Each structure stands twice: as C-alpha cells, then as structure tokens.
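User: Good morning. I'm curious how zinc ion would be positioned relative to this chain. Could you predict the structure with it bound?
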Amino acid sequence: MSAQRMIDRRSALGALGGAAVAPWVLAASGRAARAEAPLMGAARPNFYRAQLGGFEVTTLLDGGIALEGPHPIFGQDQSAEAVQELAEANFLPPTQMEIVFTPVVVNTGSELVLFDSGNPPERRPGAGNLVAALQAAGFEPGQIDVVVLTHMHGDHIGGLMADGAPTYPNARYVTGQTEYDFWSSEERLAGPTEGNAKLVQANVVPLAQNMTFLKDESEVVSGIRGLAAHGHTPGHMAYHIESDGRRLLLWGDTANHFVMSVQRPDWHVRFDMDKEMSAATRKRIFDLAATDRIPVTGYHMPFPAVGYIDKTGSDYRWVPGGFQSSL
Ligand SMILES: [Zn+2]
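Assistant: Good morning! Here's the predicted structure, ligand included:
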C-alpha cells in the first residue's frame, strides 16, 4: 500500500470514528437494529473439488441422516458406556449421530468416472440428492462415462435408477465379480439379505449387460484400479487412483465412522457382514494409507470426506484434509 493511500485510509477511518455511534446506543434510542435478518437454518456445501495430478476429484454430498448411536451400530460387542465415552472424548454427542453419504466423481481428462450412486429417492430430503449435488458441481448425469460401485448396499446403488430408467444414460458400469455374484444370486432373496437383494434385482441386474466385473485388483480406466477390501460385504472393493505420481485411496465403506471405525478398528459394526474380516481389512487399508501418507476419500467420512490416516504405535486417527485445492 502506498504512503498516500495509507494516509487517505487513516483519515477516512478517523472521519468514520468521529461520526460513528455504537450500535447498542442506536438500539437504546429505539431505532431498528440494522442486523435484523431471518434465521435460515444450518447449511453446508454439497460439493468439493480438488486437483490430483492431472485428474480432478469432486466429492459430492448425497445427504446425511440422523440416527440413534453410535452404540450399538458401532461397538456392537462393547458396552454402551465405552462407546459413549469415546464419542464424548472426540467432541461427539454420546447418543445421537449423523451418517453422511459421499459419492465421488473423478475426471481423468478423458473420462468422467462416478464412484457409487447415493441413496434411493425415497430417502429424500435427508439423502438421495446426488443428482442435485452433481449439477451444483457443474456436471449433468448424461456426461458420466463410467459408474463404479464399491459394493451393493442400498446407500451405494439406490441412485442408479430413477423411475425404472438408468439415471446415467450414457454410462458403462464396473464392479467386483464377487460382489455381483453374491448379491444377484437368487438365494439372497430370502432371509436377512432379502430387502437389499430386491434392490439389487431392481437397480443393478438390469444394467449387468453393460457391466465389467473386476477380479480384485484389475484396472477400471487408466490410473484407477480396484483393491480388494472384503468384509463389509463379501466382495467390497476399494479403489486406488493415481495421476502424475499423486495418489488417492477411495475406501468406500472400509471404515464407516471417522472416530469409531478408525480409532477402534476391531469393534464390531452392525453394517459389516463379516466382523472379523472387516476389522482385518480396516487395519490393512489404514496401514497402506498411513505408511504411504496417501490422502483418503471415504463414503461415510465427514464432508468433504477427504483426510489422512495417522498411525502412532498401533493407534489410528482420522486427520481431516480440509478444503485444500489439491491433494
Ligand atoms: Zn455405505
């Protein structure tokens, strides 16, 4: 700033200071407060874009749902007190929790790749808002070239169809062979898997002719490959994304809570179909992220759902990545 401009600014401030009357004096004199405005409710952004080498990564908030918890959803094999204590130690309410849903779009420069499709529209207004988030981020559903599924739970496949038609009309699909075989089997249409298997029949099976099935660690498109992360579901997949030497781990539902699942990876989680395998997978994936200091995006991590895993001794901790412009 030039000396002349500094003087101008000082004299302007001086003039203002001389004439200014404190707002509480105005209020006391009976004049309306200028700051009067309606309360508008809580708000947060629904997309975040960062650069990863030559790729652009956009995380998209499909929504969030309030639940009673974290116990017994998390720490199913623990006392309520132990779980509540961990929540409070991490500045979280002890008996209420929110779960958010965060699909991701990766623009490789030649293809637009969407990971997971959010909740079915029936869950609106809380969730099922992926298309709105996608449009807010500057994309249209018709631009999506590839839809990749981490696994086939309802909050990941619920947005594949709208009124019986594919939401992403020009996309091809990629998912794990093991996952597809498990959920599309007729045996799943009875017992505890019935509800989800019906959604798979409605939303995934009709798309199968346009679907590539990964045998664990194979390539999705150049720079993106699958990473077996079974346990949460029998064929759950994580994905490794790399461009110009920059790496990102997309872990899907490897960990479903940024405190409970990360700080206590062995605790049983209601959503995990195989509790022991899920715990082993969590620690293997956490070790990969911590050792190589790779940024992570996780479907149920707090928005913008990007962070890091810090490992001290045998303890893990989620470190939020914040809204950085590059990863
Ligand atoms: Zn999920």
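Residues 153, 155-156, 253, 299-300 surround zinc ion (CB under 6 Å). Residues 1-27 have pLDDT under 50 and may be disordered.
Let me know if you'd like a different ligand tried.
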